[in-house]
Structures are given as C-alpha cells and as structure tokens.
Amino acid sequence: MAKSLWNDNLSVSIPLIDEQHKMLLKHLAEFSEAVAAHHGPSEIVGTLDFLVDYMDFHFKTEEKHMRANSYPGIETHLKEHVKFTRTLANLGEDFKEEGATASLAEAINTMLINLFLKHIEAVDQQFGAFLKGKGVVLEEEA
Ligand SMILES: [Fe+2]
User: Fold this and answer.
1) What is the Å distance from ligand 1's center to 91 Cα?
2) Fewer C-beta neighbours within 10 Å, C or N terminus of the chain?
3) Which among 29, 2, 25, 3 has a CA at the least distance from the CA of 12?
4) Three-state secondary structure call for residue 137
5) Using the 8-state DSSP alphabet, how is residue 9 labeled?
6) How much is the pLDDT for 137?
C-alpha cells in the first residue's frame, strides 16, 4: 500500500477540496510505486484509469466553484489543470507503449507528483483563501 503524500501544510482550508486532494495524492503515490516496482499491467492500468477519472472529477469540482464565485484567477488556474490532464494522458500512453520503465517512474514523480504538490501549495491555496475570505462553505458532493 502506497503511503499518501499528504501533509497538513497542503491544506487549502476548504475541507471538500482537501479531501479530494488526499484521494488524488494517495492514488498518484500508488501509481508511482506500482510503476517503480514493476507491478502487473492490470494493476497499473486500474490505478491509471482511476486517476484519469478522478483527476477530471476533481478539476471539474474546482472549476465549478471558481465559476460560481466569479474567481478572478480562473484562467491561469484552469490552464494548469489542462497541463496536468495532458501530462497524465501522455504518461499513460508511455506506459501502454513501453511498460513500467524506470524513466516512466521518474517522470511520474517529477512531471506529475512534484508539480501537482506545487500546484496545491500555490494556486489551489490561493483559491482556497479566496473562498474562505468570501465565507464560502463547500459541502460534500452528492
Ligand atoms: Fe487546482
């Protein structure tokens, strides 16, 4: 079982978003470890498919609340989401073409996980502070 990359410094002060980040980081860590440990293709594809769906769901959640609250930083923020979606898709393609290589494991850690942690600590925390400043409380989605 992969250990989560979450720590409390990553909180954006909005519980709904924090919970989604925890879920994403847990599965990003699983993806990274499964590739590094050369787990079987079905396990890796399962993790990858989950990540593709969950990342899309999570980005749509953030986008929905940005629009609902007329967030001024929406354009730059959404551009970063598009980049992550493309990076994940590209790494998935690399896996399908070449399997669980050491360079893929390295790329997952640097191009996906480290950049996503930076995204949380920069633009997501800005967005969280904006919502908090407006007194917005986000409920768990049905
Ligand atoms: Fe974000």
Assistant:
1) 20
2) C
3) 25
4) coil
5) G
6) 82
- Enclosing domain of residue 82: 14-133
Give the distance (Å) from ligand 1 centre to CA of residue 22: 13
CA distance 112 to 117: 9
pTM over 0.85: yes
Domain count, the chain: 1
* Per-residue tokens: 98: 């070449």
CATH classification at residue 48: 1.20.120.50
Whole-number pLDDT of residue 1: 58
The total of other beta-carbon atoms located within 10 Å of residue 3's CB is 10
Residue 4 lies in a domain: no
CA of 2 to the centre of ligand 1 (A): 23
Q: Give distance in angstroms: CA of 79 to centre of ligand 1.
A: 10
Which amino acid belongs to residue 66? Answer: M
Which regions in the chain score pLDDT beneath 50?
142
End-to-end CA, the chain: 28
